[in-house]
Amino acid sequence: MASIKKNKEPNFIKPLDPKDFEISKVSFSRVLTKVNHTDLESNYVNIKYDENKFFVVARNCKIMTESKTTKINNKIYYTLFLKITDENFIKMIKSFEELLILSGYINRETWFNNNDFTINDIDIMQMLKPTLLHHSYNGYSIGSFTSFEYQNSNQITKDCLLFEKNKIVDVCFSFDKVYIKQNKFYCIHRIEKIQKIKYIGPWSIRIHNETTNNFKKFMMTILLCNDKMENSLCYDILIYIFEFLKTF
Fold first, then answer.
1. Domain ranges in the chain?
2. What span, in angstroms and rounded, lies between the C-alpha atoms of 162 and 148?
3. Among 151, 150, 145, 149, which residue's Cα sits nearest to residue 74?
4. DSSP letter string over 163-218?
């Protein structure tokens, strides 16, 4: 009797917490060339983190603007401009860009076809287009668009409800490629997932029924203590119980 092959479960990559970022785990491919629809060539290197795709989460991002763009394939992509307040993410980006500058110098001949500048030359630092923008008043910000995989996932329709100005969200970015031109280079990043902040409280509650007073206090203690609930199902159950108790 022939054995039945089981379908392999898909591989899931846990997004990196930026505070755990290690420079030594970042690697770049050889220089590759891509030809676009207008027959223009562009050079790039792929990025990996710990031999996998480079996914990282920035927490408490504020959506400053959002827009839709229709691409050539008639897909609608969302572009979000986000205010970044996650200090660990900011620190990680700075470390990553230092690595890009060093890698640009080490690979200057294959990346830029240039062997003239030195590591102390300010030119190579100015050639790198920064990932984060910085404003003296607004702080750090980033503009990014939704990835192809995200657009085609079942999650995007639900998540689009969060695409509103001034919403505070957690964002999972992918750092995919470094595009290389003769006089500049920059990292391509995309939005892979957006979710609401797992935060509950503070609550202002009026208890109407003394017979359920103690139980309500117990439930509220649970809600207020769990200010970060990673399990969204648990979160939904607690909210359901809370709404039910309000009817007493």
1. 18-196, 210-245
2. 19
3. 151
4. --TT-EEEEEEEEEEEEE-SS-EEEEEEEEEEEE-------------GGGHHHHHH
CA distance 119 to 127: 13
Tokens at 59, concatenated: 């927490």
Amino acid identity for residue 92 in this structure:
M
**Rounded CA gap, 100 and 185, in Å?**
9
CB 223 within 8 A of CB 203: yes
- The DSSP output letter for 129 is P
Least confident of 16-30, 47-61, 140-154, 205-219: 205-219
* pLDDT tens readout for residues 141-166: 999 999 888 888 888 888 888 999 99
Distance CA 106, CA 115 (A): 10
